[in-house]
Amino acid sequence: MGKVIALFNQAGGVGKSTLAMNLGYSLAQRKQRVLLVDMDPQSSLTTFMGLEPGTLERTIYNAIVLEEALPIHQKLHGMDLVPAQLKLSDAEQELVTAYMRDIRLKDALEPVREQYDFILIDCPPSLGMLSYISLVATDYLLIPIQTQFKAFQGTDMLLQTLQKVKAKPNRNLKIAGFVPTMYDSRNSHDELTLKAIQEQLAPIGKIFPMIPKSTVFADASMDRTPLAVYSPKHPAKKVLDGIAKEMEKLNDL
User: Fold this and answer.
1) Residue, of 71 and 155, whose pLDDT is higher
2) What's CA 150's distance to the chain center, in Å?
3) Can you state the angle between helices 129-137 and 155-167, rounded to 10 degrees?
4) Which residues pair with 183 in a beta bridge?
5) Residue 113 to residue 108: CA distance in whole angstroms
6) Which of 10, 38, 67, 230 could staple 45 via S-S, CB 3.0–4.6 A?
7) Which residues, 6 or more positions from 252, have their beta carbon under 8 angstroms from its beta carbon?
8) Which parts of the chain span the membrane according to its record (predicted)?
9) Is residue 142 a contact partner of residue 24, using CB atoms and an 8 Å limit?
């Protein structure tokens, strides 16, 4: 059975979709079978992977609301993708009264889990229903945190949500770690926040090396290619490869 990892932070703009794409690519380069699942109505991951959300007839909405088979787009940069589009935002309300709503995503993934080594879920930046069913469906939580004080402060609410999910609907949920993102070494606030992340969150989960702030990530996303393809010698590639290597060890947790 493949490992299911949700990339989640209720704050937006932390580089979550970028991390999902590039971590998935690093895993694929290590000969792992990877499925990306876009659970964000903003559809950034879908766009980064080269699809046009507005033109898609079937998305993850069809799987979790209409209970159809997952619409999987294959062989995109060596990975497969279940896309999203703006209509997914309707699911927040439609799932409120849906039968067995908690496990809609988990059930949708079950038939394909044996086909993949890793399933990476790109959660929306909220604590709503779409994030909730993503946390119920996942094995591990990977948390990107922007190295800004306000972003770090929001971690308490995120961890409270995690504890509620672990209390009953997903007792086996584990934290794979925290990934400090958008770190600017020229900014003293970033340095202080990174230190706080390393000191205060280390007892909860592994703190991965920080991913530096760089316009190259945006450039690669606009080009709809992973960083390792767009700029193979960029220093962040080594960090992403290191995170991928650690994800392969998750069964040891």
Assistant:
1) 71
2) 20
3) 60
4) 212
5) 10
6) 38
7) none
8) none
9) no
**Tokens describing residue 242:** 């290191």
Q: Which residue type sits at 29?
A: Q
Residue 144 in 3-state DSSP?
A: strand
Rounded to 5 degrees, φ, ψ at 150 are -60, -40
Q: Tell me the one-letter amino acid at 227.
A: L
Nearest to 118 by CA among 153, 65, 78, 68: 78
**Pairing outcome for strands 73-76 and 79-82:** antiparallel
- Give Cα 236 to chain centroid, integer Å: 17
Instruction: Find all residues with CB under 8 Å of 216, minimum gap 6, and list them.
Output: 227, 230, 231, 234, 236
The region, left, alpha or beta by phi > 0 then psi within -120 to 50, assigned to residue 43 is left
Q: Which two tokens stand for residue 205?
A: 């989960």
> What pTM was estimated for this model as a whole?
0.94
What DSSP element (H or E) covers 178?
Answer: strand 174-181
Q: How many Cβ atoms sit within 10 Å of the Cβ of residue 144?
A: 25
Answer yes or no: are the C-beta atoms of 73 and 80 closer than 8 Å: yes
**Single-letter residue type at 84:** A
User: E-strand spans in 2-148?
Assistant: 3-7, 34-38, 73-76, 79-82, 118-122, 140-146
CA angle 153, 154, 160 (to 5 degrees): 115
DSSP label at residue 175: E
Which residue type does 80 have?
Answer: D
pLDDT, average across residues 193-208: 91
Q: How far apart are CA 205 and CA 143, in angstroms?
A: 10
Q: Is 27 helix (H, G, I), strand (E, B) or coil?
A: helix
Q: What angle do CA 192, 194, 197 make, to 5 degrees?
A: 110
- The residue with tokens 């038939």 is 111
